[in-house]
Structure formats: C-alpha cells, structure tokens
C-alpha cells in the first residue's frame, strides 16, 4: 500500500537543509514525467502547485494529484481558479487555460524545488501580485542553480506561451539533466549551510498560500516579460528573504528521506 501523507511543500520544509542538486533534479524529473502522462491523455491539469504534488514514501517518488477538473463548478465567467503564484499570466489576463499554462506552473515548481520556499511567499495573493506577474515579475533564480536547470525554468515561465517548451521536450531535457547528475557523484560533497531561519519563515507564511481559490481581477493588460533593466531593479529591491547560494545549501544528503505522498501517475522505466 502506498503511503502518501506529505506534499511537496511540506517535504521541502522538512528536508531543505539536506537536499543535493541530484535529489532536487530527481524531484523535478518525477513531477515533469507525471505531467507528461497527464498531457498524453489530452488532459490539462489546470491547478498545479506544491500542495498537490504528493510523495510516496515507499517508492521515494513524487506524484501529481487533484486534476483541475475536480475544481469548483461555480467559477464565475470573469474568475480564475487556482493558487495565484502558479497561475500562468495569460490565464490571469482572461485567456483560456492550455497545456502551456501547466508548463508555466512547472516553471514555478522547479523554482520552488531549487529555493525551498513557495514563490512570492511575502506577497498577498491579490490584484497587485496578479498585475506584477502579468507585467513580468518572476522569483529570483537561486545563485548556484545549474545552468541547464535555470534555462528550463526561464523557458517554462516565459510570458509568451508559444516560447514555453511542450511537455515532451521538457521531459526529455529534465531526464537528460537528471541522468547527468546521477552519473556524477561530486554533488554529494558540497557543504551545508544552516538555513533554519528561512525554514521557520516558510512554515509560518506558506500556510496562507497553500490552497487554491477563485480570483476575480477584472480587465488585465497583455502579459509581457520584464526588460533587463526592470529585472535588475526588482531583484535589487526584492523584499523576499535573501536566498543563500544553493552551492552551500544543497550539501550532503542521506537518501533515506522520511517522507510520504499520494499517486496519480508516475512510472518512469
């Protein structure tokens, strides 16, 4: 019997100090592979976030739960249902949810896996945050993030859905990165930085943003990406906690993580 009692957000809170890049990339690979199975069935999830990515303690694999068609039936025509930081900007601006909207959510999840905290943790989930997302605001990439992983994140959360990879391309790329890290054991030798203060902040504040809800924002502009100048100005004044360099966070890991979760689809041969 599968034991699935822990979601990704809880798993990261409990294990952030002990996760290597090897393990984090494997988590991203699990999630992307699970989404590829869903998209192969011509189904859009519509509500991907770290609260419905569940961990199977027995197999040590993450699965996707709560398919989007299980959401509320009474969403207003001018409303959007979801967990705001993970909702694609084109959906916030009133367009239909597509397969590429799920890919945007994957980009946010990949960032969350790399940082150990939910995206926009210090922002209220309101009109102001929605407008910032539409205008190109994204979380700051964690220093020390592997270049190919960083590239995938930025492709996934591009404001233009046509520039995001499809699930097949994304699955192939993360599989290649995961394979490379499992062939290289050097990642296991990195030092650990104590980030207990960060974890305390996450455990308190992330409770506010753990759930999806109906958002009604009215008319919104067309989504766009930040310019380089806007990105530099935003990051220099960012109010979120200072993210430690991941080269020092993701140190030696014991692979016997004491975690749990719930199955939808995930079985990479």
Automatic annotation (TrEMBL):
<dbReference type="InterPro" id="IPR011009">
    <property type="entry name" value="Kinase-like_dom_sf"/>
</dbReference>
<dbReference type="GO" id="GO:0004674">
    <property type="term" value="F:protein serine/threonine kinase activity"/>
</dbReference>
<dbReference type="GO" id="GO:0005524">
    <property type="term" value="F:ATP binding"/>
</dbReference>
<keyword id="KW-0808">Transferase</keyword>
<dbReference type="InterPro" id="IPR001245">
    <property type="entry name" value="Ser-Thr/Tyr_kinase_cat_dom"/>
</dbReference>
<protein>
    <submittedName>
        <fullName>Kinase-like protein</fullName>
    </submittedName>
</protein>
<feature type="domain" description="Protein kinase">
    <location>
        <begin position="1"/>
        <end position="175"/>
    </location>
</feature>
<keyword id="KW-0418">Kinase</keyword>
<dbReference type="Pfam" id="PF07714">
    <property type="entry name" value="PK_Tyr_Ser-Thr"/>
</dbReference>
<dbReference type="InterPro" id="IPR051681">
    <property type="entry name" value="Ser/Thr_Kinases-Pseudokinases"/>
</dbReference>
<dbReference type="InterPro" id="IPR000719">
    <property type="entry name" value="Prot_kinase_dom"/>
</dbReference>
């Amino acid at each position: 019997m599968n034991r699935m009692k822990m979601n990704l957000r809880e798993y990261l809170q409990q294990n952030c100090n002990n996760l290597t890049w090897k393990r984090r990339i494997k988590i991203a690979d699990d999630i992307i592979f699970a989404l590829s199975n869903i998209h192969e069935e011509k189904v859009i999830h519509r509500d991907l976030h770290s609260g419905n990515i569940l961990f199977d303690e027995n197999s040590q694999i993450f699965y996707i739960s709560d398919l989007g068609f299980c959401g509320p039936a009474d969403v207003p025509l001018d409303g959007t249902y979801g967990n705001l930081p993970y909702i694609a900007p084109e959906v916030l601006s009133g367009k239909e949810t597509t397969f590429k909207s799920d890919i945007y959510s994957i980009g946010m999840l990949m960032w969350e896996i790399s940082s150990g905290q939910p995206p926009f943790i210090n922002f209220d989930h309101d009109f102001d945050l929605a407008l910032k997302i539409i205008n190109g605001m994204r979380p700051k990439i964690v220093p020390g993030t592997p270049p190919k992983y960083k590239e995938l994140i930025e492709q996934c959360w591009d404001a233009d859905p046509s520039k995001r990879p499809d699930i097949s391309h994304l699955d192939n790329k993360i599989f290649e990165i995961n394979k490379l890290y499992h062939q290289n054991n050097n990642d296991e030798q990195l030092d650990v930085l104590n980030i207990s203060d960060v974890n305390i902040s996450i455990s308190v504040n992330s409770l506010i943003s753990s759930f999806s809800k109906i958002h009604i924002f009215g008319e919104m502009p067309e989504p766009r990406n930040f310019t380089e100048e806007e990105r530099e100005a935003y990051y220099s004044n960012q109010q979120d906690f200072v993210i430690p360099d991941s080269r020092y966070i993701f140190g030696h890991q014991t692979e016997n993580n004491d975690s749990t979760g719930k199955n939808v689809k995930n079985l990479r041969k």
